[in-house]
Amino acid sequence: MNAELLAPAGDERSAYAALNAGADAVYLGLNKFSARSAAENFDVSALTRVTEFAHLLGAKVYVALNTLIKDSETDDFFAAAVSAWNAGADALLMQDIFLGRELKKLYPEIILHLSTQGGCCNVYGAEIAKRYGFSRVVLARETPIEEISAISKIIETEAFVQGALCTCFSGQCYFSSFAGGNSGNRGRCKQPCRMKYKIDGMGAEKYAYALSLADLSVGGDVEKLLLAGVTSLKIEGRMRRPEYIAAAVQYYRAVLAGRDARAERSDLARAYNRGDYTKGLAFGQDDRLISRDVQGHIGEKVGEISVVGGRYFCKSEYAARRGDGFKILRGGREVGGASYFLPARGGFLLSSEKKLLTGDEVRLTTDSAGGERVLSQKRAQGIAVQVRIAAGQRPRAVCEDLVFEGAEIVPEARRTPLTEENIIACFSKTDGLPFAPQISAETEGAFLTFGALNAFRRAFYSALAAHRLPKRAPLTLHLPQCGVERKNGRKVAAIAEGETDADICIVKPCDYAHIERPKRAAYLYLPPLFTSRDEAEIANILPLFEGIYCEGTYGIALAEKYRLCLFAGTGFNLTNRFAVAGVKEAGAKYFALSKEISGAEQNSLRAEGAFCLAYGNIKTMDLCYCPFGKKCASCEGRWQYTLTDEGGRKFPLRRYRMGGKCRFEVYNCAPLAADGGGNVIVDCSLGDARGWLKRAAAGDTDVPGATRGHFDRSFL
């Protein structure tokens, strides 16, 4: 099976671990504009070192500039993009397709990949990405396999095969932003989805990790992705240790080679394993998707506890040693940690601050020997080097078409001449460069000090590296100009289940299979995940609407196909003037500015057709799975539930059906009332459309229990 194996790198050590383990490419972030801001990330000098090392191995480096870019940051963004390209990046990953289009217009040579945050999940999104100059899309994790096949016929695709799963649809999570003040779209997610919650129904009334998804591990099913046309298999994990990254690469190398990969899978599970893994949503929701009982790393089971004479004995074939770490589970739930104590016949003894019981499950979470083993692999390019050092001549080293000569004539040996063995031993050292040289040497009566010989070797290998690295003319920074012609107006757009008397009526059904014919000009609300099955369900009703209010950029091409007006929703994440100009040029009649920027920032982007979410409900997450585990036979059939955190905050949970499947939306614990004037959106997804429209008409923001959201302060 041929495919690019793409690994993460949160720092230099991880990058080298991935490349040495056999990755075809690595992706990493700069110190700014990275969706993993908590990672160490890279400055330009570190990026240059990694790209040179990768290119000498024939591997690639992709740089993630995949956060939302505010209007005040666009100059810095263009500068960062040019710096990354000049440092040797093979492609740049971006979330904002409109900013990407502008970058591609300025610098056609730059290769762009659309980040998973761009939410590409159907052929319409793929068409827009390609039209705007992107060469590849990183598929939304929720994309079904049949959509992947169709998308791959349009543009290169990259699919996640291993690592953490976001519980919300890619690029549409605002939970951390509104509930915790740190935006995931800015790389600062505080992961509220990994906390405990209870839900008022369907047997989920006790606190558990109700939204925490198990780690993805596609394993042998990568063959299905390759058959669907996927170009690149992506491992997630820029926040994880080098041992995990190396283990993940080695596991998928074994899978792709068709080898028995059980040993490599053990190494991977011991390095990091949340929830004993899921195949993910590409193949449909499985029983292990949600890790309700355990949130963090649970490693691999190596035995069970027997309490013998007050000691904790683990019968196991695993040869434990000092430095190993263990986690103890009881009934599938974490009891606590344990550490290696002493060897024992047929196993080993553990020590733990917690009282352990016979039958408790012992999970290995730190395999010290395994970590050393997976990091021990070194990768190098085989080369043939011929060295000739003869008295009266300049020293010469030849590799392929590179002929390198020293500057000085070699003197004749008076006593002990230089030997071929001396030359071979010296040139076997490659000064950290990934070369595996086969050396042939000649010498004739020459004398060189070891210092001079070493200097010649270093100069040769440096010249060889420069000779082998791809040549690229550096780009000169040009800062594009883009203005926004501000327009002030006052229209109210209302999102509600049924029709309203708002200026712009946006119908958001609970069940898309039963949409009533609109009695007035209206827009149909479309969620961020939209599949061919969803389209087939609503194709007959779509022409009866004036337009679509769409939460994904796929709406541009979809509106064109059905000749409908487009209202670009808040899911477009419009945060700068290039995005505003781009969405208008794409034909949007109306568009919503990002709900994460401040009132002042929104006001500077209020071009004709601009709307701001100002009243009502704040959707914080789109869940494309059932949080109750698809217990369809016993489903209560309710359209709304309440998600409660351990602090007592209550987050409405709305269910809807589309394409014959249930999906869910999570809303903020407090409604929004923050009217800065101009055109406003009133979100009445949870009801009370009449009350919210009355407040909007009066400009009334004095609503008990309401929040002003990011109106006073944009995302951090």
Can you lay out the helices and strands and say which pair or pack?
Layout: E1 4-8, H1 12-21, E2 25-29, H2 44-56, E3 60-65, H3 74-86, E4 91-94, H4 97-106, E5 112-114, H5 123-131, E6 136-138, H6 145-152, E7 156-163, H7 175-180, E8 197-199, E9 216-217, H8 222-227, E10 232-235, H9 242-256, H10 262-271, E11 300-308, E12 311-315, E13 325-330, E14 333-344, E15 347-351, E16 361-366, H11 368-375, E17 381-390, E18 396-399, E19 402-405, H12 420-427, E20 435-444, H13 450-468, E21 492-496, E22 504-507, E23 523-526, H14 532-538, E24 547-550, H15 554-562, E25 565-568, H16 577-585, E26 590-592, H17 599-604, E27 610-616, E28 619-623, E29 640-645, E30 650-658, E31 661-667, E32 672-673, E33 680-683, H18 689-698
Parallel strand pairs: 1-2, 1-10, 2-3, 3-4, 4-5, 5-6, 6-7, 7-10, 17-20, 21-22, 21-33, 22-23, 23-24, 24-25, 25-26, 26-27, 27-33
Antiparallel strand pairs: 7-9, 8-29, 11-12, 11-16, 12-15, 13-14, 13-16, 14-15, 17-18, 18-19, 27-32, 28-31, 29-30, 30-31
Please name the defining characteristics of this protein.
alpha/beta, 716 residues, 4 domains, TIM Barrel, 8-stranded parallel beta barrel, 18 helices
Radius of gyration based on Cα positions: 29 Å
Unreliable residue stretches: none
Instruction: Find the CATH superfamily of the largest domain.
Output: Aldolase class I
Number of helical runs?
Answer: 18
CATH classification class of the largest domain: Alpha Beta
- Assign an overall shape: globular
The average pLDDT value, as a whole number, equals 96
Enumerate the strands of the largest sheet in spatial order, edge to edge or round the barrel: 1-2-3-4-5-6-7-10
Measure the end-to-end span: 43 Å
Hey, roughly how much beta strand do the residues contain? 15-25%
- Category by helix and strand content: alpha/beta
